[in-house]
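Re: export button greyed out
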Amino acid sequence: MRRWGRELLINALAWGIGLAWIVPFLGILMSALRPQSELIHGWWQFSSFTISLDNFVKAWNHPTAPMSQGICNSLLVVIPSTILPLFIGAMAAYAMLRFPFPLRDPLFLVIVLLMAIPQQMVAVPLFRFLRDLGLINHYAGLILVHTAWALPWVTLFLRNYFSTLPREIEEAASLDGASRFQIFTRIVLPLSLPGLASAAALQLTWAWNDFFMALILIYDPEKLVATQRIPLLRGQYHIDWGVLTAASILTMSVPILVFALLQRYYIRGLIGWTLK
Amino acid sequence: MRLHRVRWERIRRWGAFLAFTAPALALISLLIVLPAMQTVALSFTDKRGAFVGLRNFIEVLSDSDTLNLTGFPPGPPPWGSLVHNAVWIPLHLPLTVGLGLILAVLLERARGATFLKSVIFLGMVTPMIVGGVIIRFLFDENAGVVTAIMRAVGLTALGRSWTAYPETALPALILGSVWLWAGFSMILYSAGLATIPRDYYEAAAVDGAGPLQQFWYITVPSLRPVTMVIVAMTILWELKIFDIVYTATLGGPGGATMVLALQMYFYAFRALEFPRAAAVATMLSLFTLIVGLWFVRTLRSSE
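Workaround output, generated via the alternate export path:
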């Protein structure tokens, strides 16, 4: 009897907190899906309930900051910003694992310190450097910046992942005359697909969710990425919650989709580089 | 002859090592290390590039944007960005860490745990720029559910838009950031709990330890390494906070939610005061690097 009561208490608490956590998301979903006239007394009133995609259409085709363009732009930035650091980071991680080199011991410290640096620390010199290269308003600049900032954790994560691979296969390939690079691309990378998927899921989300780097490097209204358009839709004096929440849902749908599809890898990635 | 071959082999290995690591090293040095060092240099110069020692830091620290202790703590914010960041930590850190642990323990035994975990973790997946929108929405006078609840229970003072008033804007952001971030500690704690061997609990139960004792003497110490990771990552996140403030309040009203990262952005990209912006950034980095160093040290000493 007591056991049953405890079970009930645990479930009630867990579901209570879980449902409370979902309320904000439910709120913006209701605000985006229902006409303003129904929401005057709050989105939690359901005396009349109409669903319409008006707000989504308005946000998608917004006259000054269309989300359609923002989402396309974000995709153009995010895909190379995921592939590049994965490949470059994997190469570095492999070399750091398989070659003896000085600075091996402080490597972890250096990587953690690199991850601790706030983006604001590089903002002004980075802006000037990319401006001199003519890369402001160009995705190439933003992609390189995303790549560089992803490299410390991608390298650390993949180094840990590669260290779980059996070394014998590589040695056998080496005896068969395969070069280091061949071993890396033909054996190490294919064996590491789960690890690469974890890193890809995380980096895809982080690059998509980035706001600050895009804010300082992309100014052309047509080139703004999705996250940059959200503050523009807010409006100066009056907030059109319908459009703003619809745009928010559009923007968060991509990382949520990635999370839903790659959940296992995503969480393993998050845990993998933090718990050794 | 043999010695020659060994040396040649060594050079080849080094060459291969460099080829594998060169792209990563080049990008990291050019786009992180070098600009960070330039920012440090910039923080010690004036607008024309002349060395001025610590003047920028003194100016920034004596500016009420950064430190404004006249009203602290009885009066409402603005207390200055440095204080706002500092206030964020003792409120947000215990709340998210505690909540994450409680949730992880509860969800170990609740039904539908996978679903609940995904829902709670959604805040971490959401772009923080959207997180700021949701916070503003939650605490809005007309649209928000929090203000509606406050009015319903008779707390009319908390029934107006929290983000519009200096007394409530910072608490709204901090509470909202708890909601967004709790999933992080929950997921890490869940993973940590799964690594504790079952027999520990069985042995303790045989010895007559109750659930609370088991929690205190087995669960808590076993989770120490995970806790360190969570604490370090959470403090770093709190120090670097930018996006949610940008969309929820833009540092307002009247600077009541200004934080260091946003202040740096305003100095650099609105006021074009690069040396002062560099001083703010350098200060912020100093804090985050201390956290990073502490993290590596405690991790090493616990191994």
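The domain at 68-272 of chain A is CATH 1.10.3720.10 (MetI-like fold). The button fix ships in the next patch.
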